[in-house]
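re the bet — no i am not wrong, look at it urself. input seq straight from the record:
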Amino acid sequence: MRSIAELVADVKAQKISVASLVQESLDAIAANESYHTILELNPNALDQAKELDAKIASGEVEGDLLGIPYIAKDNFLTVARIQLPQVIY
Protein backbone atom coordinates (compact mmCIF):
# COMPACT_ATOMS: atom_id res chain seq x y z
CA MET A 1 0.00 0.00 0.00
CA ARG A 2 1.35 3.42 -0.96
CA SER A 3 1.20 6.40 1.37
CA ILE A 4 -0.66 9.58 0.41
CA ALA A 5 2.68 11.39 0.15
CA GLU A 6 3.92 8.75 -2.30
CA LEU A 7 0.72 8.97 -4.35
CA VAL A 8 0.90 12.78 -4.54
CA ALA A 9 4.55 12.61 -5.60
CA ASP A 10 3.69 10.07 -8.29
CA VAL A 11 0.74 12.18 -9.53
CA LYS A 12 2.91 15.31 -9.69
CA ALA A 13 5.63 13.37 -11.53
CA GLN A 14 2.92 11.94 -13.81
CA LYS A 15 3.97 8.38 -12.94
CA ILE A 16 0.30 7.66 -12.19
CA SER A 17 -2.83 9.47 -13.25
CA VAL A 18 -5.58 10.91 -11.11
CA ALA A 19 -8.02 8.99 -13.30
CA SER A 20 -6.31 5.71 -12.37
CA LEU A 21 -6.54 6.56 -8.67
CA VAL A 22 -10.23 7.39 -9.00
CA GLN A 23 -10.83 4.16 -10.93
CA GLU A 24 -9.01 2.15 -8.23
CA SER A 25 -11.26 3.76 -5.62
CA LEU A 26 -14.41 3.08 -7.63
CA ASP A 27 -13.33 -0.53 -8.12
CA ALA A 28 -12.72 -0.97 -4.37
CA ILE A 29 -16.14 0.49 -3.61
CA ALA A 30 -17.79 -1.82 -6.14
CA ALA A 31 -15.96 -4.83 -4.69
CA ASN A 32 -17.37 -4.01 -1.24
CA GLU A 33 -20.83 -2.91 -2.29
CA SER A 34 -22.52 -5.38 0.04
CA TYR A 35 -21.48 -3.25 3.04
CA HIS A 36 -23.67 -0.33 1.85
CA THR A 37 -21.20 2.21 3.25
CA ILE A 38 -21.17 4.49 0.22
CA LEU A 39 -24.60 5.84 -0.58
CA GLU A 40 -23.78 7.94 -3.62
CA LEU A 41 -20.86 8.58 -5.92
CA ASN A 42 -20.00 11.65 -7.92
CA PRO A 43 -21.13 10.61 -11.41
CA ASN A 44 -18.55 13.00 -12.89
CA ALA A 45 -15.59 11.74 -10.85
CA LEU A 46 -13.71 10.11 -13.75
CA ASP A 47 -14.31 13.03 -16.11
CA GLN A 48 -13.12 15.47 -13.44
CA ALA A 49 -10.06 13.30 -12.81
CA LYS A 50 -9.18 13.33 -16.51
CA GLU A 51 -9.56 17.12 -16.57
CA LEU A 52 -7.25 17.36 -13.56
CA ASP A 53 -4.72 15.09 -15.27
CA ALA A 54 -4.67 17.47 -18.25
CA LYS A 55 -4.14 20.47 -15.94
CA ILE A 56 -1.32 18.67 -14.13
CA ALA A 57 0.33 17.83 -17.46
CA SER A 58 0.23 21.50 -18.48
CA GLY A 59 1.51 22.68 -15.07
CA GLU A 60 -1.68 24.59 -14.27
CA VAL A 61 -2.35 23.14 -10.82
CA GLU A 62 -0.50 22.07 -7.72
CA GLY A 63 -1.43 21.18 -4.17
CA ASP A 64 -0.57 19.11 -1.14
CA LEU A 65 -3.31 16.54 -1.83
CA LEU A 66 -3.34 16.94 -5.59
CA GLY A 67 -5.45 14.25 -7.24
CA ILE A 68 -6.10 12.18 -4.12
CA PRO A 69 -9.64 10.74 -4.08
CA TYR A 70 -11.44 11.03 -0.77
CA ILE A 71 -14.71 10.19 0.90
CA ALA A 72 -16.68 12.99 2.55
CA LYS A 73 -18.75 12.15 5.60
CA ASP A 74 -22.25 13.59 5.93
CA ASN A 75 -21.17 16.55 8.04
CA PHE A 76 -19.42 18.25 5.09
CA LEU A 77 -20.98 20.60 2.57
CA THR A 78 -20.11 19.82 -1.02
CA VAL A 79 -20.06 21.91 -4.18
CA ALA A 80 -21.23 18.91 -6.20
CA ARG A 81 -24.65 19.00 -4.49
CA ILE A 82 -24.65 15.26 -4.04
CA GLN A 83 -26.80 13.48 -1.50
CA LEU A 84 -24.57 12.59 1.42
CA PRO A 85 -23.52 10.96 3.87
CA GLN A 86 -20.57 9.59 1.92
CA VAL A 87 -19.36 10.34 -1.58
CA ILE A 88 -16.13 9.91 -3.46
CA TYR A 89 -14.48 12.73 -5.40
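see?? The chain has one domain: 4-88. told u. also The longest helix spans residues 18-31. so pay up
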